[in-house]
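call fold target=SDR family oxidoreductase
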Amino acid sequence: MTPHSNTTALIFGGTQGLGLAIAERLRAEGCTRMVLAARDPDKGAAAAAQLGATFLPCDLADAASVIACVDQAAALMGSVNALCLSAASTDRGSILDTAPEAFDRMFAINTKGPFFAIQRVAQLAKAAQHPASIVTILSMSAHVGQSFLTPYSASKAALSNITKNTANALRHDRIRANGINCGWMDTPGEDAIQRSHHGSTDGWLERAEAAQPFGMLVKPAHVAGLAAYMLGPQSGVMTGSIVDFDQNVSGASPE
């Protein structure tokens, strides 16, 4: 039996980048019942067709939309026993220039939406008395973050706490929750951000990777393997763990 032959997976943000890589890994490991949730219907339809999955439109900034999406996914698959939260906003903002509206939207997408997705999946799993696994995609920025990522960093730090709190609260219901603090990652979304926010030009990725200790940025396929492990039965009783997935070590000082 493949690790995910009994998995019924709901992946928020599963239509591109890391979310899509996680969906592909789950599919390769036997997951045949999968729902991808995201805002872009064109990307969603293409990803779902590629994976033999179902796409549901959903806006993480709208808690009611998130709850309805979980309910619809559970109805389609019979249950949701694996939830992955990979969608996020990475809009820029510092402690000096972030507007209240921008702050509220960042937390709505990165913290509030995931909170209510976790809540609804847990409610359904507990009512049906079946185990479930939850993985939140976090960020190394949750430790501190760069000066231009203040609300983003705070939103991910809050979600990290929600992940651990969930793990503690629901362990006796056999509902597990773990998170991954991702470092600087090579994704289409990062390429767009580098060009739109930082004035980067063609070749920025090669230049950036040449300066990294391992000669590369974090790759989605590598993180996808860990996420699939956390979501599946092979990770056993693992819960409440937040794993730093990066080549830079938090807390280390220059020598």
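return ok
The radius of gyration is 18 Å. The chain has a mean pLDDT of 96.
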